[in-house]
Structures are given as C-alpha cells and as structure tokens.
C-alpha cells in the first residue's frame, strides 16, 4: 500500500509548527511523491526530510541505508576520516542488507563512539591550554600567550565566519541531495 501524507498525518508526529500554517487544504491526502512534488517549494527541505525519515514511511532497512548514505556524504568532507567511522558505515550497510550480525553492528558502533571520543579529547587537549593561557595574565609569559591566543582566536573567528558562509551556501544543496536520495526509497 502506498504511503500518503495529509495535515492530520503530519500532526501525529508533533511537528514544531501546525502544517495548516503552510498547507491550507485540511482534506488533501497525497502519496509521498505527489506531496513532495507539490510542496517542496513551500515546505522547507529539512522539514520534508524530518517527515519522511521515520518508520511510518520507511522500512528499518531503508532508514539505515539512508543514514549510511548521509554519513558517507559527510565523510567526503573530511580529508582523512577515522577508519573506525568508515568501517561502522560498512558494517551498518552490510547489516541492513542482512550480511552482518547484530554483534558486528554493535562492535562497529562502539568503535565509532571510541573514535568520536578520541576526536573530542584531542580537540579539548589542544584547545584548553590556549584558552587557559589567554585567560591568565599573571606574568609576561601568560600575557604573551594571551596575545597569541587572541591572535589564534581572531584567526579562528575569521575561519568560523568563512565556514558559516560556506555552510549557508552549501546548506540548501546538501538538503536537496538528501531529499533526492530519500525519494529514491519511495519509487
């Protein structure tokens, strides 16, 4: 049976806004593809993705494969991604296709979490001393460290502004790609 979308169905998922603010026909019920085609220029892509990527619309397998696809797309942005993350994607994909066990999936999940923890620890280990030195000006050395940290912070701020701009430019493209990939599960 083909899945359909209506305002009543959307409300069951407790959205952050009432769908009637955007879609005024309370009686309209369309197939997923028809609904997306009709409302993709009105409803934000992130909201369409939020709506469609749930068990009521997709199988567990398709949800897992979509998550793997999204993760692989994000990993393309990292110069040298941690192999534990890449392997977790491989295992999750194999699991979705019935080619890996739940134990293998769990082990890959733990390894990926360890990789994330290591990345966080490295970030804090690298950043905490600089911020500490910047906040303590008790001596000339601390003052010099503070100046260096301020310069680094300014450089980081400039980089963050550039990253924010790049994010804004690519955000819509990313959501378009995600929605297009998501729609392949409804063919």
Strand order of the largest sheet: 1-2
**Portion in strands:** under 5%
Distance between the termini: 13 Å
* Average pLDDT number: 82
Tally of domains? 2
Helix and strand string, N-terminal first? Answer: EHEHHHHHH
Strand count, sense and barrel status of the largest sheet are: 2 strands, antiparallel
- SS class: mainly alpha
* Rg, Å, rounded: 23 Å
Tally of DSSP β-strands: 2
The gross shape turns out to be: globular
Helix fraction? 55-70%
User: Helix count, per DSSP?
Assistant: 7
Which residue ranges are poorly predicted, with pLDDT under 50 across at least 5 consecutive positions? Answer: 135-157
What does this protein structure show overall?
The chain has 187 residues and is mainly α. The protein folds into two domains: 4-52, no CATH class; 60-186, no CATH class. The protein is built from seven helices and two strands. The protein has helices at residues 7-11, 32-39, 45-52, 60-75, 83-96, 102-135, 140-183; strands spanning 4-5, 30-31. A two-stranded antiparallel ribbon has the order 1-2. It starts with a strand and ends with a helix. The model is unreliable at 135-157 (pLDDT under 50).
How would you concisely characterize the structure shown here?
This protein has 7 helices and 2 strands; from the N terminus they run E-H-E-H-H-H-H-H-H. It is mainly alpha-helical and 187 residues long. It has 2 domains: 4-52, no CATH class; 60-186, no CATH class.
């Amino acid at each position: 049976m083909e899945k359909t979308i209506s305002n009543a169905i959307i409300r069951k998922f407790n959205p952050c806004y009432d769908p009637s603010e955007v879609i005024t026909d309370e009686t309209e019920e369309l197939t997923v593809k028809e609904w997306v085609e009709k409302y993709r220029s009105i409803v934000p892509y992130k909201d369409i993705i939020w709506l469609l990527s749930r068990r009521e619309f997709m199988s567990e397998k398709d949800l897992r494969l979509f998550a793997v696809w999204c993760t692989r797309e994000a990993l393309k942005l990292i110069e040298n991604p941690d192999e534990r993350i890449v392997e977790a994607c491989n295992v999750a994909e194999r699991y979705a296709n019935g080619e890996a066990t739940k134990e293998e999936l769990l082990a890959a999940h733990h390894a990926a979490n360890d990789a994330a923890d290591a990345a966080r620890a490295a970030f804090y280990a690298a950043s905490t001393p600089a911020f500490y030195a910047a906040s303590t000006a008790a001596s000339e050395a601390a003052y010099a460290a503070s100046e260096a940290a301020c310069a680094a912070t300014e450089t980081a701020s400039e980089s963050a502004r550039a990253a924010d701009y790049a994010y804004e430019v690519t955000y819509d493209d990313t959501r378009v790609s995600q929605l297009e990939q998501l729609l392949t599960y409804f063919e």
